[in-house]
Write a structure and sequence with these properties.
Elements: H1 7-19, H2 23-29, H3 34-44, E1 49-50, E2 69-70, H4 73-82, E3 92-96, H5 97-100, H6 106-111, E4 118-122, H7 133-143, E5 149-151
Parallel strand pairs: 1-2, 1-3, 3-4, 4-5
Helix pairs in contact: 1-3, 2-3
Protein name: F-box domain-containing protein
């Protein structure tokens, strides 16, 4: 039986992939083994973008990371509800107002992300009040964190 791959090396590879924003590679690595999944999975949930947000490249919470624009909030909500520890890996959230207006799952999903440090709201041509009341409340609760930096 071959020797197991050192976790420290896996962690370094995962960090590099996460910092290089290579979501597709991270996703593929989670499928290799349980050890790989445990190391790479936190990077899968680091910075989700909701509502096809299109911030400028290089911004703090740039959601243009390969395939990482969340199109199915219902599926992500189910995953986060079943495994709440995954929400602890999310440090930045990007919300595009125009496409998030009708999303009934987004408010609940935002409440499952306790350690968010960056919240970016893109309202291109819209204003905050066009978001649903529940989404506004969830975002306000998130914004009450003392470590949060808000970009709008």
């Amino acid at each position: 039986m071959p020797a197991p791959f050192p976790i420290e090396m896996l962690a370094e590879i995962a960090r590099h992939a996460g910092e290089s924003r290579d979501r597709k590679s991270i996703q593929q690595c989670t499928l290799v083994s349980r050890a790989f999944r445990g190391v790479f999975e936190p990077w899968m949930y680091n910075t989700p973008a909701f509502g096809n947000a299109e911030p400028t490249a290089g911004s703090v919470a740039d959601p243009t990371w390969g395939d990482w624009n969340v199109e199915n909030t219902s599926h992500l909500l189910d995953t986060m509800s079943a495994r709440p520890s995954l929400g602890c890996h999310t440090t930045a959230v990007v919300v595009g107002v125009a496409a998030s207006l009708d999303d009934e799952h987004l408010p609940k999903l935002l409440t499952l992300l306790p350690l968010v440090k960056f919240f970016t709201l893109f309202a291109l041509g819209q204003n905050w009040s066009c978001l649903g009341t529940e989404t506004q409340r969830a975002a306000i609760r998130m914004c009450q964190s003392s470590t949060l930096v808000i970009y709008s």
